[in-house]
Amino acid sequence: MPRKRAKAAPGAQASGGEMMELAAALRDSTTRELGKSDIMVEPAELDTVSGLPLHGNIPLQYVLGVDVLPFGRTLSFVGKEGTLKSMLGWYIATIFMRSPGLVNFIDTEHKTNMDQVRGLTKNDTLLESLLFRATVMDINQMNAAMGKYGAEYDKLCPARNVPILYFIDSIGALTSGKAVAAMEKTGDASTAAGYEAARRASDLTEQFRAFVPRFLMGRPAILIFINHIKVKMEEAGGSNFSPGPPEKGSPGGVHKDYMNTATLELTKVKGKTDEAVKAAYATIFIKSLKAALAPTGRKIMVTLISEGPVNRRYPDGDTLGDLESEDDVQRLYADFDWDTALVELLTREGKTTYSKDRKKSVITIQGTPNKRKCPELGITDVVTDAELGAAIHGNPEMVKALQDVLGIYRKPKPQ
Prior knowledge:
Layout (H helix, E strand, L loop, with lengths): L15 H19 L1 H4 L11 E3 L4 H7 L3 E3 L2 E7 L5 H14 L3 E6 L6 H8 L2 H7 E5 L3 H18 L7 E6 L7 H10 L2 H28 L4 E8 L33 E7 L6 H6 E11 L7 E8 L26 E4 L1 H9 L6 E3 L5 E4 L1 E3 L2 E4 L4 E5 L1 H9 L2 H11 L9
Parallel strand pairs: 3-7, 3-8, 4-5, 4-6, 6-7
Antiparallel strand pairs: 1-2, 8-9, 9-10, 10-11, 12-13, 14-15, 15-16
Helix pairs in contact: 4-5, 7-9, 8-9, 11-12
């Protein structure tokens, strides 16, 4: 005999009490059909955002929409070459290692400069003990590495109390055995590369669909992958070949989206002409193209600061040679300047005063760049933007007030 199902009575709009009664009956019916674990929602499950705290970084919190690096989710960094995508990934990897947590780095480009990574982490012990690196040649090896890391984590950490980052750099560098065989057979890269990109993107989508619920959900884990700017398929051949998923509207274009929680686009800031400044600084815009936890389109500007003198060491161990130019010189970087980025965000478009509910002023920033004052913090003598940003980040009450004003979800602290 079929089980009795919840039914809505015909007639006028249901009252609040009738609606709750219907909801209870519907929950009872579906629980019998699907099982309690598939249909019941506990109050604690309504707040599903958890993650590693992003201390001292209101700008990145603003772009992501939350004050933590959210667990159980995927983040994608996209942009052209030289836009510091990898360094932003390593910045987040450093947060994991310092927590402490594990970093599984899947290297597909085979060009990672560990001098730069060491300059960012500033702790060789962390790199030696908490970083696990797998160098892969094609998409099948990448898939195998992801699955192996995920299975080993579940086996060795059944309590799921150790944060873990899966970091892929980059999916745009991947090819497959079929593409290589086709190029060897025909001698033509354009045809093989063009339509192989569609298959590769589709395969990646399916892999991530399987990986996310199996190894991310319910675990203190994040998957971050670097992606190159999208290219049209008709341009992806011969000397114009650029790896990466195609644009929508081209063959395979519908497979470019990988169910990311957030997609951040990185672009270079133009306009700096002084060569000495260029040598020491790299400034980028970070814009959210997709954000499940915040409105899209949020944008910040941040600078990666060099440690100082040019480092003439190269990946191959050489010093500057006759066939190498100054542009090839590798530099050790110190960190992203999130303090200055915060002041730039707060003073953008000439805005200097922020209030909560249009009442009491939260913060007033006075002066011009690098000649700032802030009465709410008692700063009456001029300071630099970096110094003011550091003072704001160091004031917990000010941080909370700005999170409310900027629309940043603040994860409740455990009781």
